[in-house]
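I'd like us to work through together how a protein chain folds, taking it slowly. To get us started, please write out a protein record for me. Label the sequence line and the structure token line clearly, so we can match residues to local backbone shapes. Once you have written the record down, we can walk along the chain together.
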Amino acid sequence: MPVKNRRWVLASRPDGKPVKENFRLEEEELRDPGEHEVLVRARYFSVDPGMRSRLSGDSYAQALGIGETIEGAMIGTIKASNNERFKEGDLVTAGFGWQEYALSNGRGITKLDASIFQPPLTVTAAIGVLGIPGLTAYFGLLDMGKPKEGETVLISSAAGPVGATAGQIAKMKGCRVVGIAGSKDKCEYVTRELGFDACFNYKEEKDLVAAIKKHCPDGVDIYVDNVGGEMLDAAIANANERARLIISGQVAEYNRPEPRGIRNTTRFITHRLRMEGLVVFDYFKQFPQAQAEMAGWIKSGKLKYTEDISEGIETAPEAFIGLFEGENHGRRLIKVG
């Protein structure tokens, strides 16, 4: 029987920080699944700061078209199936975006083992700490950063899902970990709950270079960057010889009409720095191994995570816009039903 689907689409391209008028909630009728097709009912979907650049133009993938569904990761259940791979009631994840239902031929859908998601591991971890944010932290730090015991790791947006995960993994590897966050509460969270050695609130600092130097007196060996802009320049100014700069996000740059760019480039020569951008899908074939290891860490208490969940599909634009105000504490998700 056909179902009514509500979905958020791109109504107009943002000029600077997104506003609610850039999005439009549409209703459509979805037909019954055809041959080899499934109908998925969403339970949760993600709102991701990395999507911001694609709302305005081409980025790591082609720009989202006007009228297209806003992209995001979804956890759902199979409501109806004509595909031998899936049965009604199966728990699945896929990139179906900001909508309540999705029709699919099954490509790109991953079936989840519901029995794995037992406390402290929630089902939402599949699109959080075990999804793109957590995997970004895992591969960025371990493969690109290659941390050594005793090194100093500096992490921006430390209370966010990427930063929080990266910091805890760095601690497991015997590093000293310093976070940068946007409030006193967030700093207390990463130090008291996650085990970071130090954290400072960048909003209270007039001189970021001096603030980093104060908290990283021996310099920075690895910088996990989720912000960009002035914060990246300040980290570069404190980088040790052969420091590794892992660029996984640029929240401070996404809403600027023109990129600020890097100012302190001479240090790349004098200190032989290495900076590399990360698109985690390059590691796609290694996802299962990484997810299994991180799930083990969670169950043993070595890795903790926080989720920021809003109720109802109607809240998605505000939840997304709030990411650029630093409102979220942990992975921001929308609970659909």
